[in-house]
Amino acid sequence: MTLGQRIQAERKRLGLSQEGLGEALGVTRQAISKWEADGAVPEVDKLVALSRLFYLPVGVLLGVEEAAAAEPPRPVPRWKRRLWPLLSAALGAVCVVLVLRVNTLQSGQADRLLAAALADGRMWQVEERGVAALGEDGTFCWRLRAVPEVEAPGLGLSVTAEGGGERFTARADRDGLAYEAELRLPLGEEYHFTLRTRTPSGAEYRQELGEWTVTAEALAPLELTARKGKGGTLSGGIWTWDGSIWAACVPPEGSLVTVERAVLRQYRNGAPEWEQSLPVEHGRLEADVSDFQRQTRVEAGDEVLLLVEAVDSLGRTCTRQVEGAAFSDGPSGLEWAAFP
């Protein structure tokens, strides 16, 4: 099976049209059609994107990672013999790089492929890195998730942090196409982080990630503020929240903590009753819910609270009350008072 046939088979397996696949990769339908007809070869970055979309290593997509029975040579159609010189001139250096990488895989020389990827600074695409949790013993958990730009069997990855006169190392575990690692480090030190790639032959390559200084102040809980434009109303046993609601939780300068998600939630007698998600963008909560209205049937003895809750990147929840009401029987029927 050729590369083009694999692309077509995987596209159909996902139920995508040529237009849909092209939109996902940022190319035209005509480009997809040429790839599938083996009239053109995807660039290296597009091959990587295809491998992620199809959940296949690049080597498998190219048909060179797994040993397979060799197919007898087949004559090249006359139209392809006329087309390839034109394509070679158009693709230029990209085709040369791709052919070299494919030939390297076919010859089993994975080290050369990895070295080339490291040389152009594209060995690892870091999807996530930073503080993931805060310990009670003056430590923090630093987490990394990275995807190799070039897949190779037997690839090993570890992350090292050096700081405070000590070195901490953790081996990355594979999760699908990605590699994940966690380090437990003391607070208050400046750490230099390095990725170390080990090939099957034992060769090791380094990729610098830069420096981080993590202090308790940089991981302090965020401050959440919330307010409501108008109070609630009670009529016929129906309590109505009415008016606009504004909520904000913005990390201060120097903070390593971000807002992950936020909700507007109602509690009745201590139990959550309903919730509405609030928009969080770039790790910040700045929500303005205009013309908010919500009705709840209540009875004597009920206590109803409307809260904004924000969860930060360390899993901590910050809560701010917007409004609260307690209901009781009065001389003229059901009455309410601000609560708490």
From TrEMBL:
Q: Which InterPro entries match?
A: Cro/C1-type_HTH (IPR001387), Lambda_DNA-bd_dom_sf (IPR010982)
Annotated transmembrane regions = 83-102
Q: Where is the HTH cro/C1-type domain?
A: 7-61
Task: Enumerate the UniProt keywords alphabetically.
Answer: DNA-binding, Membrane, Transmembrane, Transmembrane helix
Region forming the signal peptide:
none
GO: which molecular function terms? DNA binding
The protein in question is named: HTH cro/C1-type domain-containing protein
Query: Which organism encodes this protein?
Result: Flavonifractor plautii 1_3_50AFAA
